[in-house]
Amino acid sequence: MPEPLRILDPDGRLVAASPLDSAEIRRLYGAMVAARTYDRKCTALQRQGRLATYASFEGQEAAQIGTAAALRPDDWMVASYRDAAAMWFHGYPWLNLLLGRTGDERGGSPPEGVPVLPPSITVGAHMIHAVGLAWAATLQGEDRVAITYFGDGATSEGDFHEAMNFAAVYATPTVFVCQNNGWAISLPRERQTASATIAQKADAYGMPGVYVDGNDLLACHAAAADAAALARQGGGPTLIEAVTYRVGPHTTADDPGRYRTDDEVEEWRDRDPLERVRRHLEAAGEWDPAWQQQLEEEASADLEAAVAEAEELEPPGPGDVFGGMFADLPGHLAEQRRLLARDRGEG
Amino acid sequence: MAELNVAQALNAALDTALAADPQVMLLGEDVGRTGGVFRVTDGLQRKHGEARVVDTPVAESGIVGAALGLAIGGMRPVAEIQFLGFAYPGYDQLVSHVGRIRHRSRHRFTAPLVVRIPYGGGIGAAEHHSESTEAVFTHTPGLKVVVPSRPYDAKGLLLAAIEDPDPVVFLEPIRSYRAVREDIPDEAYTVALGEAAVEQEGGDVTIVAYGAAMRDARAAAADLAATGVGVDLIDLRTLVPLDAATVLESIEKTGRLVVVQEGHRTAGFAAELAALAAERALYSLAAPVERVTGWDTVVPLRRAEHHYIPDAARIMAAARRALDA
Which of A37, A211, B130, B279 has the fewest CB neighbours in a 10 Å radius? Predict the structure, then answer.
């Protein structure tokens, strides 16, 4: 196995020059704390029956925030259901993410101008959308990039092949970020592919592949910044494999005890991506417990407000359901809406 | 004005759209250099450039998925799948994402794209090249499904489909590509989606068909008319959204309904029309609804294909049964 690209070692020491100044590292650390607060809150809310099934991203905050922070605000993002940290960092509000998890499609409509598609629930089929978006930007003379997030499991889908191939053939400005978190529900990474790394698959498509420590915020940022710069200059796509670990279950409906050991999880908890940055900041005199408490309290307050807003919203009515299908309500859907009203004794 | 066949009319529509709107682009297998296996895109890459008429790798899911990204990103992609029998890998993108993105994002992100697919039998092609599985698409939420039968409609419907703010599956009847010619205006015009055409009026029996089956339906209607039977002949042109009003109005007048489809019989689109008649025009019916369809078999190859594809004789016989009931 190759050595992954690393800038911050597990003890929080720089092993290469930091691409970011300390103010920016502090900002990204704050975002990671907020994301983890959201993640834990969602799991708690699901346990209370207030959210539908939830897919935790705990342990993957550096891979998501680090790469998302390398983007320009107008760059497209096409992510999966486990990528809320990246989506939120790129402008998709907590309210929208929470609404989605309450089972309300209105969460899928971020504020105008936020270039983030609603999360893909199917595994792998969304990567090609980022290829199309990047291609559209090029055709329209824009230098926007499209980033797409997916897991190690998604690389087994034929969709991965088609997306990688199209991106390379047309040299679209697409950044592929594979968060290899070790497990696709119960299937371990080594049973997913016989390739030594996922990054090496990039060779076959004719694009650069970067193997990076996915729990290293600075390395993830550097890899994505390089990929975005290359793409923006017309250099085409890059595949980044961020090696990380899904500390939580696949979703709140999953029991990881059936397929992996607690020892393995504990080993990865020791490589926690937040703790690594915290140690780095503390050693530099840039972290103290009071600031930590402040970050957590601010994140909790923001989330409480978003949860309250989501729960106070009236559920979607039939008008939302039928009216969401086409630009104009066609006759057959108007008729079906009438039938529903009739069956409910309303028409 | 020029006399064109269906393939030429479609070519003219694409040429018009490419010239009028810089966001319009074509993508698909062999659509550029060779002009497509049926030559529908002949000459368009030379005229409009390789960036706008794009030869793609052989990957139907990739073609449809890329088209969705392009559409969300502001383009107006018109994708071509070579044959309906090869569209199924791309169906995942249609059912899982293309038909859903507007609903999923409550109108924030939309998919104004067209997927053109040659369909149907009658040319003695290889396996997978003669499918009529339009009901797969009509059963899929969020897609409009259009099936022209003649050159004038082919151009007008395709231009309407390209202008439409929602995704359209545009099924092109292979055996009608070069079968008939019509005078086609040189300029742009549209034929509205969701509007059937009443091609012939008569009070005795309603024959409803679409796409390739219209030629046989026309032949049957002409023969019936020659024997003094009044036929309302309806070309649906668009399956989704269906022009139910035109069909119902005709059933109320004639009391007899014959539906023709080349697709497999069970749960085909003809069944939807029979259900429409049963639910909303039962008391107007003077005879059982007659379905003239393909069978629940694989479409046979060249030497046995005629056992499968509905022809004018079967349509005539169905109309006679309805009239004699």
Answer: B279
Q: What is the pLDDT of residues A126-175, one digit of tens each?
A: 999 999 999 999 999 999 999 999 999 999 999 999 999 999 999 999 99
| CA pair distance B168, B142, nearest whole angstrom | 9
Q: Which residues pair with B233 in a beta bridge?
A: B200, B207
- For A105, the closest of B56, B93, B106 (CB atoms) is B106
The tens digit of pLDDT for each residue in A221-261 reads 999 999 999 999 999 999 999 999 999 999 999 999 999 99
Predicted pLDDT at A1: 82
B233-250: average pLDDT? 98
- Measure CA of the first residue to CA of the last residue in chain A; give whole Å: 67
Burial B204-241 (b: 16+ CB within 10 A, else e): bbbbbbbbbbbbbbbebbebbeeeebebbbbbbbbbbb
pLDDT (average), residues B233-242: 98
Position B229 confidence tier, pLDDT thresholds 50, 70, 90 = very high
Q: What is the pLDDT of residue A153?
A: 97
Distance CA A223, CA A200 (A): 15
Alpha-carbon distance of B145 to B134, in angstroms, equals 8
B169 touches chain A (CB under 8 A): no
Contact B12, B155 (CB under 8 A): yes
Rounded to 5 degrees, what angle do the CA atoms A216, A218, A223 make? 95
For residue B52, the tally of other CB atoms under 10 A from its CB is: 19
Q: Do A125 and B25 touch (CB under 8 A)?
A: no
Please determine, for residue A347, whether its predicted confidence score (pLDDT) is greater than 80: no
Q: Are B6 and B179 in contact (CB under 8 A)?
A: yes
Of A136, A159, A331, the CB nearest to B70: A136
Strand partners, B170: B116, B146
At B132 the pLDDT is 97
Q: Mean pLDDT of all residues in chain A?
A: 97
- B129, B139, B264, B307: which one is catalytic? B129
CB pairs under 8 A between A and B: 142
Listed by number, the residues of chain B in 288-307 with a beta carbon closer than 8 Å to a beta carbon of chain A are: none
Mean residue pLDDT across chain B: 97
What is the CA A323 to chain-centroid distance, rounded? 29
ipTM, two decimals, is 0.97
Q: Are A186 and A258 in contact (CB under 8 A)?
A: yes
Angle in degrees, CA A213, A219, A220, rounded to 5: 80
